[in-house]
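ok so i was messing around last nite and threw this chain in just to see what happens. nothing serious, just curious
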Amino acid sequence: MKKLLLLGLVSVSTFVMSQKMKVISGNFDFLKGQKELNLQMDYSQMKFYKENMDESDYIAKQEKDIQKANKNPEEFTKWKKDWEYSKNTQFVDKFLASMNKNTDIKTSVNNKKAKYTLVAQTVWIYPGWFAGVMNQPSKVSMNLKFVETSNPSNVLLEIDSKNAPGDNFVGLPNNNDRISEGYAKTAKTLANMIDKKVK
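result:
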């Protein structure tokens, strides 16, 4: 049992260390003195698993998996409803909560007063899995662009975020809960970068 627990902790540590966040272009200077930031989530280019399946294929895979497990067809309806809620609400809320906890620049959605907007585009998701004492965290990769709210074509900073791990040390049975933790981790790492660069 101790060996399994140790193996699980090592696995989680490996995923934590595997996150990479790299500045592609621009710098953080424009954020100096800013008190607020607008957030725009973008799922239009989102891919899943090593196969890089699109969202419709991902949803079809979940339906097939539920059928293979001989579960009630209503389970897929519940899953799809949970997926839409998670994508439109839970992932956003987790990202915002983590940003606002870790930096003084307050981030919110639909804030047209904010001079700058963070366009957080999801690029790739690995949902991970849960099997009791053994589990594998999700991974979330994103492209983070800071643009002028009034002129979105003006990109001031672009950051590539890869493989942000999503889980906790106990494990999360629900895929969407694991994925949401990947968004929280992305936001925390980004907020820490902002605090270090903007003084």
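not much to say yet. Residues 1-17 have pLDDT under 50 and may be disordered.
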